[in-house]
Write a structure and sequence with these properties.
By secondary structure, this protein is α/β, with parallel strands linked by helices. It contains six helices and nine strands; from the N terminus they run H-E-E-E-H-E-H-E-H-E-E-E-H-H-E. It has helices spanning 2-22, 109-125, 150-158, 177-186, 229-238, 246-267; strands spanning 59-67, 74-83, 88-98, 134-138, 162-166, 194-198, 204-209, 219-225, 273-274. It has a nine-stranded mixed sheet with strand order 6-7-8-5-4-1-2-3-9, with helices on both faces. The longest helix has 22 residues, at 246-267. It is globular, with a radius of gyration of 19 Å. It starts with a helix and ends with a strand. The model is unreliable at 1-6 and 41-46 (pLDDT under 50).
Length: 275
């Protein structure tokens, strides 16, 4: 009974932290840069497109984490920065950790953010010229049971424009995987291969989109922080060569590779950082 009570108190504490951070959430465009002139927006607005002399979106970051199959508490958090329009990796860094925080559904940020945020902090402290203007996060933003997923958490904590990219759909506000599949199927012959994720309440939680031609599975894009859903979709389209946007895809590939090469130092008892 005491264990259950302690568990409930912990969850209530995490919910309180989420709610406190959520008050700082900005869900509209709030950044100094402009989109490249060739970028097109679903809103058909040219106000976000750069003119001569204005700051343009050039550096897009991506973060992801990989976990050891032998010991799921051993993980590698990875940050990559890609340059537009070439999608060339211009910066990368990672952290190999022994996690002490268990995974609790709906509270992924409390497990992963403490690993990923220091990678951004390190860039900022070093005044790195490749510091991202926007960050793509392998995790949901608003598309979350309490409207505050990992992408929102990292965005607010780092005060950085961020976008959530989910590979699976959270069943929020009546949204279901099968329902979304049916809606996308009905869109097959239309120009825009995406649909709004509108819940029973009428709220738009994000979009489901087939990011590349021939992609069988959609990705789920949602607002993280300081970026509207319209701009988020444009940026995702600009950075997709495969199903998953390239910044996250590269972070995933490199984190798995690094973990495979170095995990034995942790599994063998080497004292790595803890999170």
């Amino acid at each position: 009974m005491e264990g259950r009570q302690g568990s409930d108190e912990t969850l209530n504490s995490l919910v309180e932290i989420q709610q406190k951070l959520r008050k700082k959430l900005i869900t509209k465009d709030d950044f100094p840069w402009k989109l490249p002139a060739k970028a097109s927006s679903p809103s058909s607005s040219s106000s976000m497109q750069a003119e001569k002399g204005e700051e343009v979106l050039k550096y897009v970051g991506g973060v992801d984490m990989s976990f050891s199959k032998q010991d799921p508490s051993v993980a590698c958090g990875y940050l990559v920065i890609l340059e537009l329009p070439s999608l060339r990796v211009v910066y990368e860094d990672c952290s190999l950790v022994k996690l002490r925080v268990p995974y609790v559904p709906g509270f992924l940020a409390f497990r992963e953010a403490p690993v990923l945020l220091p990678l951004l902090d390190k860039m900022k402290k070093n005044q790195n010229p490749f510091y991202p203007q926007v960050l793509l996060v392998d995790g949901n933003g608003l598309l979350h049971p309490r409207g505050f997923g990992l992408a929102c958490h990292i965005g607010v904590m780092a005060n950085l424009p961020s976008i959530g990219i989910g590979k699976n759909l959270h069943h929020v506000d009546g949204l279901t995987q099968s329902g979304v599949r049916e809606l996308l199927k009905a869109q097959e012959n239309k120009v825009e291969d995406l649909i709004n994720l509108t819940g029973d309440s009428g709220f738009i939680w994000g979009v489901a989109m087939r990011s590349t031609q021939g992609s069988l599975k959609p990705i789920f894009v949602s607002v993280g922080h300081r970026v509207s859903i319209y701009t988020a979709v444009v940026i995702v389209k600009m950075t997709c060569k495969h199903r998953v946007p390239e910044p996250i895809r590269q972070a995933d590939i490199r984190s798995r590779d690094y973990l495979q090469k170095h995990q034995m130092s942790v599994l063998g008892g080497w004292d790595c950082s803890e999170a």
